Amino acid sequence: MENKNKYWKGLEELNNDPKFLQNKRNEFAEGIPLEEVLTDKDGEMTSNRRDFLKYFGFGISAVALAACNKTPVKNVIPYIVKPDNITPGIPNWYASTNPTTGVSLLVKTREGRPVKIEGNPDSPIFKGGVGAVDHASVLELYDNERLQSPKAEANEVDWNTLDGKITKGLSAAKGIRIISGAVNSPSTKKAIAEFSVKYPQTKHIVYEPVSYSAIIEANGQSFGKAVIPGYQFDKAKTIVSFGADFLGTWISPVEFTKQWVKNRKVGTTNNGAKTMSRHYQFESNLSLTGSNADVRVPLKPSATSVALISLYNKVASLAGAAKLSSPGDVEFAVNMIENSAKELWANRGASIVVCGTNNVADQLIVNAINSVLGNIGTTVDLDNYSNQTGGNDAAFETFVNELNSGAADAVIFFNSNPAYNYYAADKLISGIKKATISISTNSVADETTALCKFHAPDNHFLESWGDVESRVGFIGLMQPTISPVFNTRQASESFLRWSGNFTDYYTFVKNNWTAALGGEAGWNKALHDGYTSSMKTPVAYTTSVLPQDAVNAAYKAYTSNKDKVELSLYTKVGLGDGRYANNPWLQEMPDPVSKVCWDNYAAIGKVTADKLNLKDGDVITIKTKTGVIEKIPVLVQPGQARDTISIALGYGRKAGGRVGANVGKNAYSAVSFNGKTFVYTAADVSVEKTGNGYELPQTQTHHTIEGRDIIREASLGEFVKDPKAGNHKHAHIITLWDEHDSKGHRWAMAVDLNSCTGCGSCVVSCNAENNVPVVGRQEILNSREMHWMRIDRYYSFKDEKGNKLTREAGLAGNMLKGKDEGLINDETDFENVRVAFQPLMCQHCGHAPCETVCPVLATVHSSEGLNHMAYNRCVGTRYCANNCPYKVRRFNWFKYRENDQFDFYMNNDLGRMVINPDVTVRSRGVMEKCSFCIQRIQAGKLQAKLENRKVKDGDVKTACQQSCPADAIIFGDVNDKNSEIAKLFNNERSYVLLEEYNVQPSVSYMTKIRNVDEELAGGHTTHSTTAPGHAGHEEAKHDTAAHANAEHAH
Amino acid sequence: MRFLRITTLFALLASSASFVKADVAEGEKLFNANCTSCHALNEKVVGPALKGINEKYDEAWLIKWIKNSQALVKSGDEKAVKVYNENNQSVMTSFENLSDAQIKSILEYIKTPPVAQASVAPSNGAGDATTEAVAPAKDSIYNNTTFIALSIMAFILFLIVFVLYRIKKTVQGIYDAKFPEQAALELEPVVDVRTTWKYKLFTKHPVVGTILVILGFTVALGIYGFNYGQTEVGVQQGYAPAQPINYSHELHAGKYKINCLYCHNGADKGKQATIPSASTCMNCHMHVTASAKYDGQVSPEIAKIYDAVGWDAEKKAYNPSKQQKPIKWVRIHNLPDLAYFNHAQHVKAGKVECQSCHGAIETMKVVYQQSSLQMGWCINCHREAKVDVKNNDYYEKLHEDLKAQGKSYATVSNVGGLECGKCHY
Questions:
Q1: How far apart, in whole angstroms, are the C-alpha atoms of residue A716 and residue A295?
Q2: What pLDDT sits at residue B363?
Q3: What is the model's pLDDT at position B37?
Q4: CA of A973, closest CA in chain B: separation in Å?
Q5: Which of residues 261-300 of B touch A (CB under 8 A)?
Q6: Is A703 left (phi over 0), alpha (psi -120 to 50) or beta?
Q7: Which one of A85-94, A1031-1040, B48-57 scores highest in mean pLDDT?
Q8: pLDDT-based confidence at A805, cuts 50/70/90?
Q9: Which residues of chain B from 235 to 264 reach within 8 Å of chain A, CB to CB?
Q10: Which of A153, A383, A517, A876 could bond A925 through an S-S bridge, CB–CB 3.0 to 4.6 Å?
Q11: What pLDDT, on the 0 to 100 scale, is given for residue B115?
Q12: Cross-chain Cβ contact A951/B328 below 8 Å
């Protein structure tokens, strides 16, 4: 069956918005602003021939004068005593761990400075995956706004003076509170314990702005283990998630992506597998996880609890377990809850239910469901639990009150910034001001640090020793890859000093582990490997705890908020809770779903936006019962649940660095406290329009492919019947060119659209590897982003038969015709869009259209199948970009590395340290594009030559491939018949983009397979108001059960 | 014929003179090759100072000692045991490979070191910085003296031409005045002015004339500017800057034949050949101070290394209180950042001799840039250089293909060595 879906990137494309059409026609949105230079204010051309001669004369004399400079003498300064393991020009790799995410890393250093972070492929948990935030962490090391020395009462002091003042102050304090983010380091915990012994009036409070307090609390109640479990999505055949964005931001996204994708790979990518897990997602905003789910149900926040109760009761009735007595049946998403319950039961023990709300009752129900299904001990692991995040909301509330009452008069902020991210920041700030001694160990002058009397700045983790217990039994070790850049000291060491222990932190950590690891050799091995693992086999737990008392309240909240607008707060893949706001790589990484960068916004569904009379670019003020979010721009977001508004946390920073300051709006003010936990939703909000015409820097329709057929997909059922499903179309090909003979290497890439989650890790990895400049908000608005690879996100309406909106209709410019004919239904279709991600980089065409139009032969073909780009030959005609059907070429409009207008990192000496010395930094006026990481290809080949052998498969890995947590990108030499790429480049699911042009790309894509057959057979994920016919419904039930059983049998 | 006879005579004289001194010269060579790592003439290094041993010990004993000192000590020779104990029982290397005659010539050298040579000794590396440091290399555009000399000569030539022209004019004037008829006669064939090229060019078509003149100037200036600009964009062939230490490759690589890779040990490993760290120098210069040539003082050039690493020459130990100072060498070979060059690729994989690009480095007292390092120069070599496909498994398939085609070799350009992306990325 041929897939006729129309794929669209944004509503402006769908609606043929005039601005979109104009941008589409002018790929380079702006010409050179000559007139601006040559006209005066009144718009009259004032320049004339005389001026021209003046400028000309000046130009010539300036050039002549400039030429008088002597060539500068360059020095070359060798080491005095060369370290044995450093040879200039050859990178060194160190295993380490990111303490914030817990991910195992390999750090590449050149001449003693870290330049690139990659995943540690040996790590049993993370298996070489790395997230965007891990990649970008290396840039924070070279932030010239980090605190450069300790400070006491705004004066720079030395560490001894600071320690003296602090210990004196602490000894006199009545109540000391350490406020920290989740602490996952055993040694740091020990240091804090020593500190608490010395100062018995100490309490350590874990405060996470995006808190997991409810999960901890609920597991304590259900199982007597107050922890965040480890989850094993790889063991789950059915996955049901209620608002948990586990592929994007929830607890440990890199780990979960690795697990999740294991059961998603089919066909040649997974030894011919013909089964897939099925993933249901119930959520308000279209998250990264939701956009990858097979079945996604838009759900209001107030409906989550009710849906969970309903799911529990359905599972319980199948299991014959005790039910929750509820006041009525569910009224929405009835079929999908029914379907998921049946599938969960069919796959009991190999299924998983997770929930992202910070509500204890919700989490208790989730525990009950998993317990009834027998998932605890298989997919939910309470023994090897996670330390990656945490939170104790009630304790933090108490602390704020104590601070104001004076019961706590000393406070240490360790890796924590509540003055920014606590909802009642004013109350906290007045409390901090009352404290007699306030200390911050944060490494930048953020909102909280600015209020503190003493600054004891922490090292960056790449300058530090440490241990990170991401999951219990899995210890990642951290080792410094550079001496501290500034006069900073590791916070854990500070705690030791203040408690009178003068051991240096390295010895302290080593002493903690040497015995357990079997002596010096064991320690060295663990340090070399980057981790040591002794995880147990998890045990099954059951619970009979049911939150019966919460049921009525949940129903009441649901019914009373019907048709009222609700607010849900979420975090973005890039910025997280705001701690990465000062990282320009992450700011510029487009949001995986909305493709907006450098801003947050109020995401509103189309129906709700129409109801509230709002459109893209309007500015609104949102009032909840407890807080206000002022003047936030609107983005009409397909997939957004009806009557909801979603806003990302982590924006609107006021301090902590020039990059993140005043980007977006702070939404923490809308968080509230319900007596037990922080609540990230708000019911019944009022919306007031305060302006319009705000432009969001959104890349979704830049580099548009004009609606051409470049996404191919099929359902799992179709794929099982015919592995080539959805991939039958082949173009009639004629050619003008001679074939290349490719005898040596032929480098090629395969991208598995079925594995790609669109997380954006590859984009940041590419930035770091290839010195891609950051261009900032305004230049994104001008469509001048420089990213060498982009991830296109396509929406389509949910109907594989092509009844909704076909490509042909779309191409004819009749996007709205479908609507006129009743095929597109605003009521539900914009909420139930399907999403496909497609990473797009230079396709290295065999018959590259760019090559034939370059007047100076700056871009030419290589014998190894690459499309070379010689920057110093390029004169910037941009013909190549105009002729590229994939729109992957980028033009340097500015000299980003020297221009203070782009004050991110490349314009200062410290920031430039991160530049990869093996890749040219491009100048203004030249084209650039993905090179297939040619520097890595050359290095891999050279290594083989030096070792007198052939290049082995896997010797050369591109930066995007190395970092992909989903292993969606495979690279290699297709002429090596035994290589993975030779198998994957051309298999039953492979296709090349725009085959009809016969440009012979070196990148092939594999069709996306969705596990949605039951849905096709009649089940619908629609709102109750548009419930389908009864017959279809019955059929769906039947199919589901049959399929689920069949799957179970596998 | 007479000329030939005289030269022969001179040659004979010269050779006989050198024959007389052969012993000492040979001794010096052997001494430098074998002894200097532990001995100096006038001071104690590892072993004792050697001046005066000829008087102290008899020659036969010395030969025995040098050949195998340990055997002598073990035999219970009184003098030998005494020397052994006096020097902290450190064992002297045996030199059984040296013939008696060679040892004799070494002893001859120790007895009468050529004093004159020692004090100037430019060939011995640690020469005087002021005389050697700025020694210009051949063909250098930086060679100001040559440039000035040429300019003066050009000026003189111009002056001569000018004077000759004036003389001719004056003589013509006198001649014309004397023989006006003759002059008129000669003027007769003068044709219509309007047909001369000057008239045509400058009077009739002034624009064309002006353009041509300007064009001429432009071309002339352009040629000059091109040459000048080349140096400005980094084409610095012949560049021979003064270095902070007057280090002689002629001495180390030429005379002592130290392997290039001993110091430049990155050349077969990675991108950079690497400048050796000062600690590498100290491997030898901990002992070698060249004090023989500086009246017992450490050579001022070697002292610069000591200064950099914080070595106390008196105590023969590192002085931790001395601050270490890196040596700021001047970089000679400056490739632009846009070109990627990897030494290991050329030295190890390509088996290219260092000298192919760097010139006869073993003869350079001051290193200069031998090659232009321009792209054309790279490309030329890539067109001609053969790839050793036989002895590297990396090229196994290519080798088979070549054999099948009946070819015996491939050049670098055949394996894609001329493609932009091989060096520019």
A1: 13
A2: 93
A3: 64
A4: 14
A5: 265-266, 269-272, 274-280
A6: left
A7: A85-94
A8: low
A9: 236, 241
A10: A876
A11: 56
A12: no
**Residue B231 near chain A (CB below 8 Å):** yes
Element holding A411 (H helix, E strand): strand A410-414
The domain spans of chain A are: 227-386, 563-691, 701-734+747-1010
Confidence of residue A27 (pLDDT cuts 50, 70, 90): low
Q: Which residues in chain B (403-422) have CB-CB distances under 8 A to chain A?
A: 415-416, 419-422
Q: What are B306-348's pLDDT values in tens digits?
A: 999 999 888 888 888 888 899 999 999 988 888 999 999 999 9
Tell me the H-state helices in B21-132. Answer: 22-34, 53-56, 59-67, 69-74, 78-86, 100-111, 115-120, 129-132
Contact A512, A467 (CB under 8 A): yes
Task: Locate the chain A residue with the closest alpha carbon to B325.
Answer: A80
Residue A485 identity (one-letter amino acid): V
Cβ contact A87–B420 (<8 Å)? no
Cβ proximity of A464 and A490 under 8 Å: yes
Fold (topology level) of A701-734+747-1010: Alpha-Beta Plaits (3.30.70)
A71 with B328: Cβ contact below 8 A: no
Start-to-end CA distance of chain B, whole Å, equals 66
Distances (CA, A) of A906 to A135, A462, A912, A931, B40: 17, 20, 5, 21, 55
Nearest CA in chain A to B401: A743
Look at the pTM and tell me if it is higher than 0.90: no
- Are A578 and A664 spatial neighbours (Cβ–Cβ below 8 Å)? no
Residue B59 has a pLDDT of: 83
- What's CA A933's distance to the chain center, in Å? 22
CA of B362 to nearest chain A CA: how many angstroms apart? 21
Residues A931, B424: C-beta atoms closer than 8 Å = no
| CATH class given for the domain over A227-386 | alpha beta
Domains of chain B: 2-113 (1.10.760.10), 374-425 (no CATH)
CATH of domain A563-691: 2.40.40.20
Q: Which amino acid, residue A373?
A: L
Using CA atoms, how far apart are residues A445 and A144, in angstroms rounded to an integer?
12
What distance in Å separates the CA atoms of residue B305 and residue B321, rounded to the nearest whole number? 16
Is B280 in contact with A870 (Cβ distance < 8 A)?
Answer: no
Q: For chains A and B, what is the number of CB pairs under 8 angstroms?
A: 159
Is the pLDDT at A766 greater than 60? The verdict is yes
Spell A7-31 as b/e; 16+ CB within 10 A means b. Answer: bbbbbbbbeebeebeebbeebeeee
Residue with tokens 């406020």: A179
By Cβ distance, the residue of A80, A860, A863 closest to B277 is A80
